[in-house]
Amino acid sequence: MTIAPDVDPLALALQPPPDETPQAREARLQSEREAKKRSDLIDEELTRERNAEKKSVKSVKVLLLGQSESGKSTTLKNFQLINSPKAFKAERASWRGVVHLNVVRSIWHILNALATAEAYTSSPHLLGPDDPVYPPLTPELLALKMRLLPLRQVEMALLDRLTHGHSGIKNEMPDDEPNLAEVSINSAMPWKNAFSRIMKNLRSSVDGPEANEAPDSREARELLYACAEDMVSLWNDPTVKRVLKVHRLRLEDLAGFFLDSIERVTALSYEPTDDDILRARLKTLGVSEHQFSLKAGNMVPHNWTVYDVGGARVPYFDCMHAIILLAPLSCFDQVLAEDERVNRLEDSILLWKIIVSSPLLKDANLILFLNKCDILKAKLASGVRFGQHVTSYGDRPNDFENCSQYMKKKFAVIAKQYSPEPRAFYSYFTSVIDSQSTSNILASVQDTVIRRSLGKNQLL
Ligand SMILES: Nc1nc2c(ncn2[C@@H]2O[C@H](COP(=O)(O)OP(=O)(O)OP(=O)(O)O)[C@@H](O)[C@H]2O)c(=O)[nH]1
Ligand SMILES: [Mg+2]
User: Fold this and answer.
1) pLDDT confidence of residue 205
2) Is the CB of 311 inside a 6 Å radius of any atom of ligand 1?
3) pLDDT digits (tens, 9 = 90+) for 135-176
4) Under a CB-based contact definition with an 8 Å cutoff, are residues 226 and 218 in contact?
5) Ligand in closest contact with the CA of 65
6) Superfamily for 59-89+286-455?
7) CB atoms closer than 10 angstroms to residue 106
8) Cβ pair 35, 280 in contact under 8 A
9) CA–CA distance from 118 to each of 125, 127, 176, 299, 397 (Å)?
10) Ligand 1: distance of its center to the CA of 68 in Å?
11) Does ligand 1 lie within 6 Å of residue 377's CB atom?
12) Are 273 and 80 in contact, with CB atoms under 8 Å apart?
């Protein structure tokens, strides 16, 4: 038999026979009614099971807070690295452009310091007794400076690629000259596509990452590669080291420092490592979030949402199971970028005070990350005196152990004094660019948040 194309063969098969008797028809309808009843019962059972399953997945919300550059996005990257390693790796290529922008920015910092040194040394008669004494710049150094100016082109090409078609991504730099402003990004924009689009069909094992790249991006990378030797010479130049010292600029303490790895990160075949991604600096605007599912031991699975609030003060988020406040300890001698009258460590203390005393947040688990301990250690070892900036510290020993414990106690006392109700004080000394130690800390945080929230019946 042939069937016309617009006839449904199933409907045809289910059609009653043309010579059906009234009794046969009644029996057929009865049997169809029973079959439908059975089918409805099965559907109901399935819906019940699905709802029960949904209810058994608990939802946990965590908010990351802290001043700009405190390490919120880096902590979020660690959450991703631990809980969604595949997605993290898939975004690897997107970070290469950010690393390159970070390199160029560090070079601008050096050139800026050299320009200041040049201004001071060219008019010695104008200097007062308190003015800094810069060393004179050598002709080789001046030539190096000129040879590095094409980096501006590299920077523009990278920024173009990063901002292309996404109005939410903001470049704070004016067009006419390089300056030290940061590149920021609105987290609502899919900026990662801007870099990863060009990497889509990457055949890195065969052709290297540049194989399918857009010409403008390849040109920028080649230019950066061509400048690599000069950048290394600049960074290693003894006069530059002296100028930076007089300028009181420790580039290695600044966000997005890659100058000790110029050759590696400018190589044409360069792919950022996990460590590079954790160190890359891109300022966040707005709120970004990361969701993942966590299943520990015999526990029911938990859906986690971690919110990263770019540079924000205290936003009004309720229903948070935990707040992780990032307080960078190494910032004791720095002021806020947005307000030069405010010391960064004081600002973190104030933020902690506001959070612990908030009646709205009295049920949230508060977790303090005393962050950037690696930089604190290096800074103290380089001779910067803690007591000079934190005057209450006086002349206690200028070492990591004493300084960090002193600050921990300060935060603990505030928690005790200002909490509306007594609460546990969870604090960790962290260096969130170190993925190994951070993964252990985050595992412990995850465990604490689940245990305490279950105990308080807070999980939905
Ligand atoms: N050495 C060191 N660098 C860190 C540490 N934590 C964060 N950083 C770096 O500091 C820079 C700033 O960190 P982010 O995570 O971007 O800071 P943020 O709090 O998200 O800042 P905004 O987006 O401006 O709000 C990045 O380059 C990080 O790699 C740390 O413990 N040690
Ligand atoms: Mg951020």
Assistant:
1) 35
2) yes
3) 999 999 999 999 999 899 888 888 877 766 453 444 554 444
4) no
5) 1
6) P-loop containing nucleotide triphosphate hydrolases (3.40.50.300)
7) 22
8) no
9) 14, 13, 21, 64, 38
10) 8
11) no
12) no
C-alpha count within 13 angstroms, C-beta hemisphere, residue 298? 0
Alpha helices in 9-149 (DSSP H): 9-14, 22-56, 72-83, 85-90, 94-122, 139-147
Burial 41-54 (b: 16+ CB within 10 A, else e): eeeeeeeeeeeeee
Per residue in 326-382, pLDDT (tens digit) is 999 999 999 988 888 999 999 999 999 999 998 888 888 999 999 999 999 999 999
Cα(247) to ligand 2 centroid in Å equals 27
**Burial class of residue 355, CB neighbours in 10 A (0-12, 13-18, 19+):** buried
**Mean pLDDT, range 441-456, rounded to an integer:** 84
375 lines ligand 1 (CB under 6 A): yes
Q: What is the pLDDT of residues 319-328, one digit of tens each?
A: 788 999 999 9
Q: What is the pLDDT of residue 188?
A: 55
Question: Closest by alpha carbon to 334, among 320, 349, 344?
Answer: 344
ipTM of the complex: 0.99
Three-class DSSP category at 229: helix
Whole-angstrom distance, CA of residue 267 vs CA of residue 269: 5
253 is known to lie in a ligand binding site? no
Residue 395 confidence (pLDDT): 93
What phi and psi, each to the nearest 5 degrees, are found at residue 335? -110, 165
CB contact set of 406 (below 8 Å; sequence gap of 6+): 390, 393, 396
Helix axes of 373-381 and 400-418: crossing angle, nearest 10 degrees: 130
Answer yes or no: is 380 a known binding residue.
no
319 is in an annotated binding site: no
The ranges assigned to domains in the chain are 59-89+286-455, 93-271
What value does the mean pLDDT take over residues 66-79?
Answer: 93
Which amino acid is it at 160? D
Which helix H or strand E contains 449, and what residues bound it?
A: helix 435-455
Which residue's CA is minimally distant from atom 2 of ligand 1?
Answer: 372
